[in-house]
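ligand=S-adenosylmethionine
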Amino acid sequence: MVAVLSCTVTTVRPTNDTRPLLTRDGSYTVRNDALDVFYHSVHGAIQESTHVFIKAGLEQVPKSKMDVLEVGLGTGLNLLLTWIRCWEGKCTVRYTALEPYPLSHAMLEQLDHCNELAWPGLHTPFMERMASTDTEWAEELGGLSFRKLPTFVQEFDECEAYDLVYYDAFAPRAQPELWTAEAFTRMHNALRPGGVLVTYCAKGEVRRAMLAAGFSVERLPGPVGKREMFRATKN
Ligand SMILES: C[S@@+](CC[C@H](N)C(=O)[O-])C[C@H]1O[C@@H](n2cnc3c(N)ncnc32)[C@H](O)[C@@H]1O
């Protein structure tokens, strides 16, 4: 059964006052001074994204062709890590990313995630997709189809279209409205039965919101610098 939701979005604009910041695994993230948040863990952007979204998410989906929804495209690091798995022949992915506040081209050039990941050949198609304002699907490349929507997660209303959600919103202290039972009900609706949502967050109130939305929730070991993370499954 699919829950029906209404929506009024109130949120802060998170792209003001951003600057790149080197994390402890040698990869760059972005810091937003106005919100007092980082786009990734300061213990390592690549290590966190790989642990939470790739190892505990993508690699656990029991099919090789899948639909992935990302909440918060940000620097595009999760997209790139997923794309690399596709190029390696491990899976084929249709990737939809929500991003109401895209980072500037200059910031993405500065971060240079493709070189960090030793995939310089991906730089041009990656930047084209990150810069596009088209909400249609970009041409499939290397096993990945991509589209970017400027939609707030609080307004997202697709139904049973995804196998996996990367829930990579800013922390609850900065954007509590993104961690409510209502937001997770939207994610529950968006997933197919058996679908999974992964997030770096492991707060008790977030677990309760996920349970209220109908998920079953596992606590898993977190990435370096964090004891736990959540994986929520739609039964
Ligand atoms: C933690 S960062 C995402 C990091 C990103 N996944 C990466 O790999 O760089 C959170 C992102 O959520 C976006 N965001 C903020 N409000 C949002 C909303 N209401 N709905 C969806 N995304 C939102 C921010 O603009 C930001 O890019």
